[in-house]
Specification:
The protein is mainly alpha-helical. About 55% of the residues lie in helices and about 5% in strands. Its main location: membrane.
Length: about 200
Amino acid sequence: MCSGSFAKCLGITLIPLAIVCVLCNILLFFPSGEPAEHDHITDEVFYCGGILGSGVLMIFPALVFLGLKNNDCCGCCGNESCGRRFAMLSSILFAAVGVMGAGYSVIVSAVAINQGPKCYHETNGTQEWGYPFMENDYLSDKQLWSQCLQPKDIVHWHLSLFSVLLVMGIIQMALCAVQVVNGLLGALCGDCCGCCGGSDGAV
């Protein structure tokens, strides 16, 4: 498979992943699916890891990867004017942007999962909004989840959506890293893998 075609496959895969991340981040603004006040929403939601990191910043490399296919044709070997090697090399920069964006989303999601959601809970006889799991390993002790009185099932909501963002971000990082390697090979060896041996498809 030519490096341009492979890059297009990566771009096609990144777009739905970015859409999923954006939707998950938007849903996090509505704890348990209900409207909430600004102070009642987990702080990490406002960092917009899914919208900015795995969403907006991921669209740019995805579009670039898709566009590389337009440069994919036989008869390009040794033809410096076609700019195919430069296109593959430039895709590495956009892939790096994708890695940073997805990495940002992964870090935000990991922090949010580690500290737990903001909820209305009771502490030492006082009920208030805050983070009841900051000092507890709530991930291994589900009995602690009952400390969150409102919103209903907020812990499940929080963990499910941030876990999706975490996994999607890791996948996006892996795909962009693959394109870095693919882009290097395309820049060094040429975009068309087998055109040097024959160019039957050349015009």
